[in-house]
Amino acid sequence: MEDEHRPTTAPEPECDKHEDRVEDPEDPGSTGNGISSLEQPLLKRSTTLTASHLALVGAKVSHIESLDYEIIENDLFKHDWRSRSNVEVLQYIFLKWAMAFLVGLLTGVIASLINLSIENISGLKMLHMVNLVREKRYWAGFFYFAGVNFALTFVAAVLCVVFAPTAAGPGIPEIKAYLNGVDTPNMFGFPQLIVKIIGSIGAVSSGLDLGKEGPLVHIGACLANLLSQGGEGRWRLKWRWLRYFNNDRDRRDLITCGASSGVCAAFRSPVGGVLFALEEVATWWRSALLWRTFFSTATVVVVLRGFIEVCREGRCGMFGEGGLILFDVSDVTVRYHVGDLLPVTLVGVLGGLLGALYNHVLHKVLRLYNLINARGRMAKLALALAVCVFTSAGLYVLPFAVPCTPCDPAFGEACPSTGKSGNFKQFNCPAGYYNDLASLLHATNVDATRNIFSTGTSGEFRLDSLFIFLAIYVVLGLFTFGIAVPSGLFLPIILMGSAYGRITALLLRRWARIDHGLYAVLGAAALMSGSMRMTVSLCVIFLELTNNLLLLPITMFVLLIAKTVGDAFNPSIYEIILDLKGLPFLEPKPEPWMKDIAVGELAAAKPRAVTLQVVEKVSTVVETLRNTCHNGFPVLDRPRPGVSELHGLVLRSHLVAVLRKRWFLPEKRRTEEWEARERFSSTDLAEKAGTIDDVELTPEEMDMYIDLHPFTNTTPYTVVETMSVAKAVVLFRTCALRHMLIIPKFQGPEIPPIMGILTRQDLRGHNILGAFPHLANKKKTH
Amino acid sequence: MEDEHRPTTAPEPECDKHEDRVEDPEDPGSTGNGISSLEQPLLKRSTTLTASHLALVGAKVSHIESLDYEIIENDLFKHDWRSRSNVEVLQYIFLKWAMAFLVGLLTGVIASLINLSIENISGLKMLHMVNLVREKRYWAGFFYFAGVNFALTFVAAVLCVVFAPTAAGPGIPEIKAYLNGVDTPNMFGFPQLIVKIIGSIGAVSSGLDLGKEGPLVHIGACLANLLSQGGEGRWRLKWRWLRYFNNDRDRRDLITCGASSGVCAAFRSPVGGVLFALEEVATWWRSALLWRTFFSTATVVVVLRGFIEVCREGRCGMFGEGGLILFDVSDVTVRYHVGDLLPVTLVGVLGGLLGALYNHVLHKVLRLYNLINARGRMAKLALALAVCVFTSAGLYVLPFAVPCTPCDPAFGEACPSTGKSGNFKQFNCPAGYYNDLASLLHATNVDATRNIFSTGTSGEFRLDSLFIFLAIYVVLGLFTFGIAVPSGLFLPIILMGSAYGRITALLLRRWARIDHGLYAVLGAAALMSGSMRMTVSLCVIFLELTNNLLLLPITMFVLLIAKTVGDAFNPSIYEIILDLKGLPFLEPKPEPWMKDIAVGELAAAKPRAVTLQVVEKVSTVVETLRNTCHNGFPVLDRPRPGVSELHGLVLRSHLVAVLRKRWFLPEKRRTEEWEARERFSSTDLAEKAGTIDDVELTPEEMDMYIDLHPFTNTTPYTVVETMSVAKAVVLFRTCALRHMLIIPKFQGPEIPPIMGILTRQDLRGHNILGAFPHLANKKKTH
């Protein structure tokens, strides 16, 4: 429940109503009128500061919460730290590292198994299809190809639609939001993990234009979350050691490890994985975490290497060819001169332009898809299957449209080849000839990338084949991403980028003296940068993908150009998706107009904060919890007449824990520290189980009192009312806060000790502009 | 001036007395009794919370200040932002990028020139020496060799001692402190830059066991600082655009760019440079800065490549051989199996142990050297020259101690060679034989590393030669670092590490099946990690140095082991140096016992904060400034009886600016906003020129009033008195603060609006333990 502050007199908290109303994904009316058009925002946003806290996750409107990354300093937790023995501290440290190791290990194993399945399933599929074509049974070939793809997509989509709608898509935006402090429900659980694994295998082997990279990142994060909780729901382990991880902070660190392990497993790129997590995913970072993440990715690499070693020489079917480097282009010595600057710059500029255009169009397509997906499960399924049929038809038919090319012995590779992989597919061609488009389309996405990146093959691909390839993959890349299967964005973008890179090289072949395969690499990097706007991590990922260090300076150059050009048009694709999903992500930089408004003004625009007294009546606490959906309540005291005290902030979950334990006092008095400790351990308090609706109290109990001293965090973060919102946003984000108290600048009688309370939603630019429209004008002049 | 708070009644501020007393580095008594022993701390630390703010920089005690990274929100600055036009915003953005480009460009050019000089000077020296040896004129050879080295060291040391004592050493700890918020004087100026360039050329070509890597980082930082200020002192440019950079925040960002450019230029490692700045040097980091830093290092690489291109085929004397990759070992295909685990683990564990031991012994040596250096300029010079003579003797004589080895045609390289470089130096051997120790000792440090890293040469080096090499370089590595010349730590550690790596490979040759050259690489990486405790950045630097991606997983493994082992013994070498220099660096993690003390207790242990009224008498302001050395003063108001207001915090430099401008009011009144703006621009206020001693006022002026409204930062960061020090330290560091106000938790009449003020010194563990010794006992139990 998010933290808006409404008066206690409200009879029913709005937050719960919302949640009930939109629970059923089958109900077409659940998404309201707000999304009936392509132009309007997907979620209706309120125009006051108490903004919506609902988000669309996996095309389903969900209730979102903030995470408590702040250190809670209350009596019980403080006692827990103080009483921790050295052994317990060592247990904690050991567990942190053991968890990081396990996350890496499991991610590596699962990634290898996924790879193994995909390579074998799609390999067998391709082989049989090619055989049918060689026997000139073209229709049989088509129906076989399309049928298998249909079945695979069906499995992936049904799993995704029925069991885990949030497993659709890459999951990276939600991880990014989680690490920013926004929790989306049902995102990192066991069903998501399983659906993501099987769905990813199905979707990728069915030939859809999507990668397993994003899903692998999500799988890593799911593993991290499940490990830190000891499982989920009923099957949850109650191991004593796991209590150390029963807080949002340690879970956040582990999920960061999981995300980098995922990238590492996807690209076999340990350093790139760490940097991806650092540059793109994580909001807060410390040196210690850098090291732990690095440890996780190192574990992943060892596991991957182990699998490759075991599977060498065909022991795992069609898996295990190729080494640790996915697209090795290290055999080319790169020499470049001033003359190469022009085509390379062009690749960079085009990458920025096309990336921005891709973001723009994908945004529109996703809005359209959300409308379709909102119509229910069958609509989702139909959409996925339609895209699958279209993809199968395109991939199968198009190679017939290009003429056969004679093999050139200078290529030095088997030509033509009839196997599963191979750069020169014979397909429908006579002996001695190959079909260049079939080499690209009749292969897994990874093999297609390997073929288009191949070096020393400048004459291999015909210009028209490359144009056809680019066209079909642009269409597929736009229309595949939003369907209800686990899908990654990396590989589609790499394919598009490499195509236009090769095309540029072919068109400018008089000036482009670098190998055409390297142009494909540069194009892929440029388009990635133009769409995702990463720099250092992409650079390292491409370095680790291609193993050509000499290409590094030129890659850096291209990446910088593409990002600069892209940033001139729109935000990165992940930010677009975050916005589309309505996740309240806090941007690193405050808007310029935020300097012109003080937090005191924000507080004045909101209802008064709901506060509690240190020793409070049970009935008051229950009513406050029932009638609001705030998550934190300032606790005040009045030690002597005329003097008021800001005692601290108490969390909803802690109040619920107290009510459930029925720790009530017959008279209004302050308790001693040991009294609470007799009944509560810090572990009880850390559990976030149950809501206020589970609490049922007798009228006698309602007349008793609660002493909030032991549960109140006495050190909330504060800002003076005169602080500008810009500065407050920076403080809020850098310290990873959930609540921030506004204190008055005056000190004297009759002045309340707090002026208000700020939460994430209050500090989001969009919400502030809703309440203070005059700032929008200033915005334009800046 | 640092920010302790003493009562205003003190007749003379202590800070100035200190500074006067220790200004003369010639005075042997200046360092006091505190450092007369090897065991006692170098700087006498006070036992109250008002701790010393003096640091030893370049063996000279200096006055240090904190930096103002906080956004100052006062009327004048706020008006400046609001009135900034779009053109000015674009100017600012353009300038930021132009500066980052210039920093990269100049660092690249200077690094290339330094390289060119070193290669030519030491090349010529070696050639002539070898010729003398070949003519069997051994004594002439020795005196020539030692004489040239002596002269080169003399130039470097004299420059360093006379013109810029702070240019001695690597400079990285000071940059690290600067980016943490600690300013050391005379660190990033023009003399430092020049001395560092020339001194580095002299010191490295004289054959001393030190690298140019640390100095290059310092050179990059100096360039960044000078560019952002438009020069120094009298020659400072007063270009209008530069006013955007007249604040500590933008300068910090640019210095980060400079530091990464330096690393990039040293190792030709653009990504490694960025990561080094991120992992080791910088305290605060944002995504935008990652990108700008990356742009700087990309520029450096382009410049380096340009120089290499121009200098190809001997056009620059002996510079320009070798490409962009310093120690290319990419010709070996790395295959490793479970059996290799044992020797590789051993290399890692040894790296950690030796690294920790190196840190420990170097610490002792530096303490000894500080005693010597404190005796004056002549002592410093004598020490440097003594080390030079010892080095020359060792390098010249030792190769005579080993027998000659017959050339093996399998090596495939010129053997024996008589030129400047070459892996098989003939030296004193007959034709067909080479002296393996001469190959390592009679070469520049870079060439020596290249030789010991060379692959496919497992039989090249004899075990006894390697032991001699290791022994001499351990001794030299310990005793060279602290002398008064610009010196880097990287290369000495790489040399030691590669030697023990090769030794391990030779000793375990039954189990070590990986190439011996790669063992040298692993040894170097392990020792670096064991001493400097970096992980990701080292990994990338080694990847970019050696261009062997297949080595990456095993490098990660070794680095993790070495860091873990090293961390069990002592902190990293940079932390040791920071501590030795007395720089008040704020650690990322608070001590565990800091949870047991509240900021209110700290405030109670200090003298009351010195406050000012919003409209204050000139004489009071002048006296406050003269009698204290605080840098920030809380400003209070009393809008109506019984009510007091915390108006904000005013900085010393702003008060001095007001006094110098004589903006006084004849009567006690509050001014309008435009009145101050008529006299002050935000640019005037940002200038930190002048101290209170420059202000001379007439008695009439002293009786007038100052309205502090326009100059007061109305949004200081605040914490409630109940906050634990642990949490306050995290807030202080993550928000890069200089002052933090403690506010009372009570609200009522007669309660002061602030309880105290905290600065960096108050939050350092050592100082708190001094004032609260009972916490030290708890410390042990944790």
Automatic annotation (TrEMBL), chains A, B:
It is a multi-pass membrane protein. Pfam families: Voltage_CLC. GO terms for molecular function: nitrate:proton symporter activity; voltage-gated chloride channel activity. The keyword Cell inner membrane does not apply. It is found in: Membrane. InterPro entries: CBS_dom_sf (IPR046342), Cl-channel/antiporter (IPR051280), Cl-channel_core (IPR014743), Cl_channel_pln (IPR002251), ClC (IPR001807). The keyword Repeat applies. Belongs to the chloride channel (TC 2.A.49) family. This is Chloride channel protein. It comes from Eragrostis curvula.
